[in-house]
Amino acid sequence: MALMITDECINCDVCEPECPNGAIYQGEEIYEIDPNKCTECVGHFDEPQCQQVCPVDCIPLDPKHEETQDQLMAKFLKLTGKA
């Protein structure tokens, strides 16, 4: 699954620079995650870095974008040009 940012986001700016895929961006009101770029850090780290640094714990799995570990790895390979 890709991750998502809920409306509990306080716009603290700590998650955006942590994303190795550039999937996090400032939306109209809060930060948002592009599900086409989010790999839950698969291929880069053992755990999603944005979740690790979020002070309000507002970055859950996005139920609208379910993906297996293999699909996340394939996305990582495509995004990094290693496919």
List strands and helices in order, with pairings.
Blueprint: E1 24-26, E2 31-33, H1 49-53, H2 69-80
Antiparallel strand pairs: 1-2
Describe this structure as you would to a colleague:
This protein has 83 residues and is of the alpha+beta class. Helix content is 20%, strand content 7%. It is built from two helices and two strands. The protein has helices at 49-53, 69-80; strands spanning 24-26, 31-33. Strands 1-2 form a two-stranded antiparallel ribbon. A hairpin with a 4-residue loop joins strand 1 and strand 2 (31-33). The longest helix is centred in the last third of the chain and has 12 residues, at 69-80. The mean pLDDT is 96.
Q: Low-confidence parts, pLDDT < 50 over ≥5 residues?
A: none
Q: How many helix segments?
A: 2
Counting helices, strands and paired strands, the structural category is: alpha+beta
What would the average pLDDT be, to the nearest integer?
Answer: 96
* Strands, count: 2
Which oligomeric form is depicted?
single chain
Offer a few descriptive terms:
83 residues, alpha+beta
